Amino acid sequence: MLQCIFLLSDSGEVILEKQLTGHWVDRAICSWFWDQSIAQGDSFKHLPVIASPTHYLFQVNREGVTFLACTQVEMPPLMAIEFLCRVADVLSEYLGGLNEDLIKDNFVIVYELLDEMIDNGFPLTTEPNILREMIAPPNIVSKVLSVVTGNTSNMSNTLPGATGSCVPWRKTDLKHSSNEVYVDLVEEMDATINRDGVLVKCEICGEVQVNSHLSGLPDLTLSFANTSILNDVRFHPCVRLRPWESNQILSFVPPDGQFKLMSYRIKKLKSTPIYVKPQITSDSGTCRISLLVGIRNDPGKTIDDINVQFQLPPRVLSADLTSNYGTVNILSNKTCTWSIGRTPKDKTPSMTGTLVLETGVERLHVFPTFLVGFKIMGVALSGLKIEKLDFKNLPTRPYKGFRALTRAGQYEVRS
Predict the structure, then answer these.
(1) Which residues in 28-42 are b (16+ Cβ under 10 Å) and which e?
(2) Residues 365, 349: Cα–Cα separation, whole Å
(3) CA–CA dist 85, 63 (Å, integer)
């Protein structure tokens, strides 16, 4: 049972405080938390569960905002962490992002959401589709009305009918003029390549995203061609676990609209679609840099939005960088971005240049790490494939569509 939730900014300021039970949690716990965070550094920010002198603390960090929950009683830590993640996801979806200013500008809506999502310390309603029926998302019209009428609440006067049904994530009596459902495989590739060009780590974090507009109470079954490659799967509450455990089939009654049906991880991949080869030489107060980018394993689809970003080392005074393809930008904070876009077929993109070091510095001792971005439409690099999608409880056969997208996640090339 959670007793209190705090939202903290990067500076340690309490953006929001929500007491959940009759037991009052003093705000001094935030000061203790922040003192420990400063004393122990970044390692403390990555601890999901912390034991303070008076409470157990659970923390989740999103976009510079720390979600901190407190309890004095024994409880499953994963439940608290999952709830905080769900709160962060709902706020990000409602507010169109997640930062300190957005939370302050929509203070009332954030409080109303927390009132509905947790009751007396226990998670209650966390499905975004049902929350939208209870609390209208902020928009320009609602803000103007709140100024004119003085009513700042977006709360509905009626309780959604789905809250009393066996499928609380779905609205009741749904009707659509055209029944359709779209399934997207969205994957992010995380890779680390060391200074010798050896692939140290390569894995994919993926999601099955569904956009459903189906009437009534449909029952869907989704199967994959090769589920053996999947690890660390997580499901939306609508998924029935028994069919998956016995036959690796996703059986579910979908929420209406967009939602994340499943997330997964695929480990120990052997190759990446593109290569980035840096070469750096440093001597006599200057540093020569050369960077090549090309296709290593052709995925069969065009690779778009290729870009390379890196931070100039602290002792670099100035930089002169040029490329034979794309554009190179150097920002005031010494961040360099090379935007390539789509890889050309007739040449290999390269960037060369010279870095001038500070006076008295003969050579570089700290070399940059290159962060690579790309996007490939129409292919899932993990090899995961959707086999079929079947429907029940629908009067007519709906239209269905499938898409795949792979993009770079934490893709690092070290030099």
Answers:
(1) ebbebbbeebeeeee
(2) 27
(3) 12
Is the torsion defined by CA of 216, 92, 331, 338 positive or negative? negative
Task: Determine how β-strand 4-8 pairs with β-strand 65-71.
Answer: antiparallel
Nearest to 282 by CA among 370, 364, 351: 364
Rounded distance, CA 344 to CA 303, Å? 10
User: How confident is the prediction for the chain on average, in pLDDT?
Assistant: 87
- pTM for this predicted structure: 0.77
3-class DSSP state of 44? helix
Are the CB atoms for 62 and 24 separated by under 8 Å?
Answer: no
Report CA-CA distances (Å) from 310 to 193, 279, 290, 366.
15, 14, 13, 13
Task: Report which residue type is found at 143.
Answer: K
Residue-by-residue DSSP string for 66-89: EEEEEESS---HHHHHHHHHHHHH
The distance of Cα 306 from the centroid of its chain, to the nearest Å, equals: 20
Beta-bridged to residue 118, according to DSSP, are 123
Task: Give residue-wise pLDDT tens across range 341-366.
Answer: 988 878 889 999 998 888 888 888 88
- DSSP class of residue 135 equals B
Task: Give me the phi and psi of 322, to 5 degrees please.
Answer: -135, 160
Residue 56 bridge partners (DSSP) = 51, 71
User: What six digits make up the tokens of 165?
Assistant: 């049904």
b/e sequence 388-408, b meaning 16+ C-beta within 10 Å = ebebeebeeebebeeebbbbb
354, 319 Cβ separation under 8 angstroms:
yes
Among 5, 30, 260, CA closest to 118? 5
Beta carbons of 74 and 50 less than 8 angstroms apart: no
Secondary structure class of 9 (helix, strand, coil) = coil
Residue 11 DSSP SS3? coil
CA angle at residue 117 from 115 to 120, to 5 degrees? 65
Take residue 355 and report the two structure tokens written for it: 């870095």
Whether 5 shows a pLDDT value over 70: the answer reads: yes
Start-to-end C-alpha separation, the chain: 48
The length of the chain is: 415
Region 172-183 average pLDDT? 87
